[in-house]
Design goal:
By secondary structure, the chain is an all-alpha fold. The protein contains five helices and no strands. Helix 4 runs antiparallel to helix 5. The protein is globular, with a radius of gyration of 12 Å.
């Protein structure tokens, strides 16, 4: 059985990995404590930090940051980041979620 909260979190993180334009839309409303699981909290924080520093975000950059902080395994690893990105077809509903 699927977990609707986790699926929404996956969609939000995936959108942020697909389009940097979605990051300020999300980070303006929530912080990492809005995410239920530690893996998503770590990913969210890494995405926002990368965006704030470079305005560039993709799974490889986020994975590198997570590895540097020794959090890559706790966050699900690089394959999970690419999976999050691949799940997203459309980012226009990000503010709804």
């Amino acid at each position: 059985m699927s977990n609707p909260t986790r699926e929404v979190e996956m969609y939000i993180l995936g959108c942020m990995l697909v389009s940097s334009d979605t990051i300020p839309l999300v980070s303006g409303h929530i912080d990492s404590t809005a995410f239920v699981t530690i893996d998503h909290q770590l990913i969210y924080d890494a995405i926002v930090r990368s965006y704030d520093k470079n305005k560039v975000v993709d799974p490889m950059i986020v994975e590198h940051l997570l590895k540097k902080e020794k959090n890559a395994n706790r966050a699900g690893g690089g394959i999970y980041l690419y999976d999050l990105q691949q799940r997203v077809v459309e980012t226009s509903n990000i503010e709804y979620y």
